[in-house]
Specification:
By secondary structure, the chain is of the alpha/beta class. The protein has helices spanning 23-26, 57-65, 79-90, 115-127, 129-141, 147-170, and strands at residues 8-12, 34-38, 72-77, 95-99. It has a four-stranded parallel β-sheet with strand order 2-1-3-4, with helices on one face.
Length: 171
Amino acid sequence: MLMNPINKIVYLAGWNTPDSFMKSWLSPLANELMVELEPLLYPGYETVSSDFGHWDIDRQIQNWSAQIDETTLVIGWSLGGMLALKLAQKIACGGVVTLASNVCFQGDQRWQMPSVQFESFLKRYKRFPEKTERAFWQLQVSGAQHPEHLITALAEHRKAFKADQNSLIES
């Protein structure tokens, strides 16, 4: 089977993980390929994390579809990986790479997060967003050789991301 050569990478960030977190890893690839970092944004809302209930996944995928063709490799981190798989079901792309991703959060008993745990997470996030983000990051980096360095990097990237978002809202 012939495959089209890959000439572009589209990276989909995870929930509440700034796209800049992977920038240093993907930057060297930009010498050979076009690399696009896509945050999980939805028109009319600050970010996915601001309101789960109003985020239209199909519309997000439709927004990305204009950038993706058979020569595009889609790489997704965590929720971004789940969305990359969903995207590939609807749009022909050159391939999908998922990093730290489940098959789904809900809808399949073998893979889903228990509803009680998910609801508890949402309640904690609404009351204590910063503390809940940090706990979420700790889960993501568990097993890493130096998880404290990764947590610090995520926190720094998230702080810069929020500053960028605030400057966009104010202008």
